[in-house]
Peptide-methionine (R)-S-oxide reductase (Heracleum sosnowskyi), 194 residues
Amino acid sequence: MGSQILRISPFSLSRTLINKSSSTPLFLSTNLSKTHFTFNTKLSSGFSGRVKRSFRSGIVAMAGPGSVQKSEDEWRAVLSPEQFRILRQKGTEYPGTGEYDKFSNEGVYTCAGCGTPLYKSTTKFNSGCGWPAFFEGLPGAINRHPDPDGRRVEITCAACGGHLGHVFKGEGFGTPTDERHCVNSVSLKFTPEK
Ligand SMILES: [Zn+2]
């Protein structure tokens, strides 16, 4: 449910973008995916390889798809302005500034909007792109939506629809899925492993 195949050919995309040494100022809407790619200088060293996929037997999402519905006013009441801008208005935090960008404690990342578990720390890896990167979400916790221009695939919390970031495939990070969930720290809340 909600899963959609990447429309973009991952190989042609990553080749094109990696070969472009972009000096474009960070972060202006349509250039975002280029920025993500050109920041990837540690293509093979970022992933430690110690992570196995055993987490599947652990945590499951507590809220079902679409189970958290709030009006815009209700979201404004419970979220900080920055959380509202990113989760509900699909904003993006400035690269390299997020709370969890260079954070590697063991635990679970839940949705900052509704508290649904989204990622385990065992699937987090260092992409060098300036945002937290995960190679896999918890089963059923993440929905995918190709952008209208077909260039990127947005990811959202399946329970509340909150914007998380984008997912990229085929970049050669050497992770089990060869995917990179590029997620705003603001969209996440970390809970240490007990
Ligand atoms: Zn949520």
